[in-house]
Amino acid sequence: MATVKTSRTKVRTADSDQLTRTITDTATRLGVSHKTVRRMIDEGRLKTVRPLGAGRGRLVLVTEDSIRALLATAA
After folding, report:
1. Residue of 13, 11, 12, 8 lying closest to 24 (CA atoms)
2. Is the dihedral of CA 19, 25, 31, 37 positive or negative?
3. What pLDDT score was predicted for residue 5?
4. What is the pLDDT of residue 50?
5. Mean pLDDT, 10 residues at a time, over the chain (75 residues)?
6. Nearest 10 degrees: CA dihedral of 32, 36, 42, 46?
7. Cα Rg for the chain, rounded, in angstroms?
8. Phi and psi at residue 46, in whole multiples of 5°?
């Protein structure tokens, strides 16, 4: 059994503290490509946050709550 390292992180955003995952971790968890995850974000099916202090960088994190909601609707 392979061990997969994930970067589940608690991030401080303007709204609150949220558990989040990177796009790559989200893709692995959902069993899809990172392009599919980006498409789901664009469609509004996954919610994202940008950490405070990240500036104008490309760092986008997917909220754990939106991943769970998506998995619940698929089941």
Report:
1. 8
2. positive
3. 45
4. 79
5. 46 60 92 96 92 70 93 85
6. 0
7. 12
8. -125, 135
